[in-house]
Amino acid sequence: MVLQASKRALLSFFETLRIEVGSDIDITVVTPGLVDTRLANKERLEEKNALWVPRISAKTCAKAIVSNTKHGDKYLTVPSWMKDNVTMEDIMC
Asked: Mapping DSSP to helix (H, G, I), strand (E, B) and coil, where does residue 77 land?
């Protein structure tokens, strides 16, 4: 619950910031899925029974972020299948 509330608070903050700065600054809200880093190591995923969750490389995530910001997208969920199906809180908590 706390994680979800924090996410909603940040989203509200950036939505408000978009209104305040208008078109002067582009803001892209990025919600990455499980990125293959030391934080998502095999032991932690095993502990959370989440080995089934596909991980993406940091390089793939970074490329998606750069590509989407170049196009002026307001939101990015990478990988895109994470958008409507499952939250990281569901996986890791």
From this structure: strand
Q: Return the DSSP state at 24.
A: S
Q: How far apart are CA 13 and CA 47, in angstroms?
A: 33
Q: Structural domain of residue 82, as residue ranges? A: 2-92
> Is 53 within 8 Å of 91 (Cβ atoms)?
yes
Partners of 75 in the beta sheet? 29
Phi, psi of 77 (to 5 degrees): -115, 120
Over residues 3-25, the pLDDT tens digits come to 778 888 998 999 999 999 988 88
Q: Are 87 and 81 in contact (CB under 8 A)?
A: no
The count of structural domains within the chain is 1
